[in-house]
Amino acid sequence: MTLITGATSTPGASIYEVLTGGIPAVGCIQRTEFYGDIIPATKPLTRLEKELAAPGAAAVMSQVLKPLKREYDFILIDCPPALGIISVSALIAADGVVVPVLADILSIQSLTDIKDTIEVVKEHGNPDLSVLGILITRHIGRAIISRDLTDVIEKMAAKMDTRVFNTPVRDCIAIREAQARQMDIYNYAPRSNAAADYSAAVKDMLNGIKKGEAKRWLKKHLPSPRR
Question: Which tens digit of pLDDT belongs to each residue from 114-137?
Fold first, then answer.
């Protein structure tokens, strides 16, 4: 993410220093031309799994991001694929999580681990965490295997009390080309299938958030039914 957005990986002013207590989050924010504000990542972040092993460390993400919540409508946390302490800390800090999954059997098998981790986080660290949806990527609509795996993913989504986003992201060479050129898909290939699919997925997600906010507002303000 840091590489694609053009943010500078400055040692001493990255998410690593924020999470290890070096400097406050606001001191590491970089403003980019197209992508909003970002706290960049640097290579020392790879050491964080060992350094956050102490009891209570999983709550660190929530603590460091709390001062920023009034300043932004959305704070996106880009997590590594491994379900380590960084991902758990992000889940504790988050209001909602989007689960991207490739349309292949190995990725689907990992959904079980993700489901179990989210359930543990909801039970012990963040009971209000909501799974906003599962986003299928690199989807090949013409392939029978992709259609079959989509059915499996939808069944898994039901077990996670969530849904699969309406528009899967179609497999597209432009994605890999954009990554190789350190560009996002919208600037590299704005008319590509992947750009259109990601835009549709974002709209779908925002609509789901609005509906969820409405439900929470009603639950908070309407009187409970009498028994």
Answer: 999 999 999 988 999 999 999 999
